[in-house]
Fold this sequence. Notes:
globular; alpha/beta; five-stranded parallel sheet
Amino acid sequence: xxxxxxxxxxxxxxxxxxxxxxxxxxxxxxxxxxxxxxxxxxxxxxxxxxxxxxxxxxxxxxxxxxxxxxxxxxxxxxxxxxxxxxxxxxxxxxxxxxxxxxxxxxxxxxxxxxxxxxxxxxxxxxxxxxxxxxxxxxxxxxxxxxxxxxxxxxxxxxxxxxxxxxxxxxx
Length: 171
């Protein structure tokens, strides 16, 4: 269909109607662009994983943070279990990584408290002392346990399985 300027198109009614259609299309176009950018923004923010690491070994916190940041995560960490507890209450995180043996609070205590208050919380416990007793405790809480030392690959696999299986590790 071609557009031409006919005598009818130059009438005031048609000019008003054409202007109205142009304005409506402009509003519609802005709405579509807004929806598109909102979708892109939500998608980008959904892809950024927010992680809290609590381990009394600073060098280990830094190492875990570097591994997760290379995968695009935003990582906060602390070597103080009390501060970690307070951080977990102040800000939502997609994932928590807790060392089991720390001064003041054990990682299992932090995990139990979070799971009790927010059942869908995603948590990974890590320990250099992962024995059968600790494995039973982590299973009871409903969280995976990684035994130190572990590879970056096993950490990332555990992160992926923890985040992608909503029922597997939530209790």
